[in-house]
Amino acid sequence: MDSKNNSFNERCYELLKLVPKGKVTTYREIAKALHTNAWRAVGNAMAKNKSLFVIPCHRVVRSNGSLGQYALGADKKSELLIKEGVIVTNGRVKDLGKFIHRFST
Fold first, then answer.
1. pTM of the complete model beyond 0.85
2. How many angstroms separate the first and last alpha carbons of the chain?
3. In this structure, what CATH number is given to the domain that contains residue 78?
4. Using a CB cutoff of 8 Å and minimum separation of 24, what contacts does 65-68 make?
5. Distance between CA 13 and CA 30 in Å, rounded?
6. Which residues span the domain enclosing 60?
7. How do 92-93 and 25-26 pair as beta strands?
8. Is 35 inside any structural domain?
9. Closest by alpha carbon to 103, among 49, 10, 27, 52?
10. Catalytic center residues
11. Which of 8, 53, 81, 99 is deepest in the core (most CB within 10 A)?
12. Is the pLDDT of residue 48 over 90?
């Protein structure tokens, strides 16, 4: 992987570390905070995360509230979010607006 890609991934991870327990963010919110529309690249960065318990990528969901993928499986992602107080129903964050963490206004 080239250093430019590493830099992008690292910037994604640093932002994600700011999302508190009990909150989620979206791939789009991370991309927006990085001043780009590359939300798919954010998803790729999350998929490459090797430090799942340091960089909490389980807190990143799709813009429609659906959970999306997770290295340890969707059930584990749901379990982790519920443990943190996020309401998850049928693979989707219920009332996403209540749980969303935005990096800027």
1. yes
2. 33
3. 1.10.10.10
4. 65/92, 65/93, 65/94, 65/96, 66/91, 66/92, 66/93, 67/91, 67/92, 67/93, 68/27, 68/43
5. 9
6. 3-99
7. unpaired
8. yes
9. 27
10. 57
11. 81
12. yes
